[in-house]
Design goal:
disordered N terminus, 5-stranded mixed β-sheet, alpha+beta, globular, Jelly Rolls, about 300 residues, 2 domains
Length: about 300
């Protein structure tokens, strides 16, 4: 079995959200918080740490913006979430929050997929709802938001009531919501593109797992049992970048996390991420961020 040196991008449970996401503030939550939570964006946006550093969550989540704009990431891609748009993310996916406009309003919701394990609900989140797939488009535009807002308000009321005997209604309302969104989301891509997207997602997953062990596209392609050329073609067809560019993006993402959230020296970070000479690493980092590693660490702190 191959040795793994795990990513430093943290995986957060709901109980860990407060310290990571908020600055000296705790939201008002119900007893359902660990398995289901819904809140108005305007109730907490002023307490967020922005930019919010890359992390993973153990729960699925979505935001629905009714006013204003927020900028979030899914993996290595950034999305501008505008009014009447959903942004949906599966559990364990890398995400960050870059900005939230002052006038932004809407809903945030997270949930465990296990709440759908009921005799009268049969669903596979990733299979049934493409916007929750790792390779799916996370944005869904809503043309008639009134029906969607009513569903979200019902979920909000059930959450605030905090009634265990009525909790079984929550996954049913969520299924209704997601079924509505499915009709609004883009059609499933053709099989050829799905195959390329599948390999691209495997490559992204491998980057997250083995970013410290594997130093080249060649090594990653060997792990994935594809040729470097085929990997390049799949990644290019799926996201418009080369496999090498994606490797560089992941190194920058990890470097930012290490610079922000650890006291590891810049020389150690350079070695961990590619056995770089510190000066070469500084030039590489600056070419991608317009800041040296030292400037980024000082700026962020």
């Amino acid at each position: 079995m191959e040795k793994r040196n795990a990513s430093h991008i943290p995986l957060l449970n709901p109980s860990e959200f407060d310290d990571y996401i908020f600055a000296d503030w705790k939201p008002s939550v119900s007893g359902f918080y660990d398995k289901f939570h819904i809140a108005r964006v305007e109730s907490y946006k002023n307490h967020l740490r922005i930019p919010l550093q890359p992390h993973r969550r153990s729960v699925y989540f979505f935001i629905f913006i009714t006013k204003g704009v927020a900028v979030r990431s899914k993996g290595l891609n950034f999305y501008e979430v505008q009014s009447n748009h959903f942004f949906c993310l599966p559990a364990n996916e890398i995400t960050s929050l870059e900005s939230v406009d002052e006038d932004t309003e809407g809903f945030y919701c997270h949930f465990l997929p296990e709440i759908f394990n009921q005799p009268f609900i049969k669903t596979d989140m990733a299979k049934d709802f493409p916007f929750f797939q790792f390779t799916g488009e996370p944005l869904v535009k809503v043309k008639e938001p009134e029906r969607i807002v009513r569903l979200l308000e019902i979920l909000e009321k059930e959450y605030q009531n905090n009634d265990d005997e009525r909790f079984d209604l929550i996954p049913m309302y969520l299924m209704t919501l997601f079924s509505e969104l499915k009709h609004l989301s883009q059609p499933t891509q053709q099989n050829t593109k799905n195959a390329a997207a599948f390999i691209t997602q495997r490559y992204k997953n491998a980057l997250s797992e083995f970013i410290y062990e594997k130093k080249s596209v060649q090594e990653f392609s060997e792990y994935l049992s594809v040729s470097p050329n085929h990997l390049h073609k799949c990644v290019k067809a799926t996201i418009g970048k080369s496999a090498h560019e994606l490797l560089e993006d992941m190194r920058i993402l990890e470097a930012k996390v290490l610079l922000k959230q650890t006291t590891i020296s810049i020389g150690e970070i350079a070695f961990k991420l590619g056995r770089f000479d510190p000066s070469d690493f500084s030039r590489f980092f600056k070419s991608k961020t317009n800041l040296t590693p030292r400037q980024y660490r000082q700026f962020e702190n």
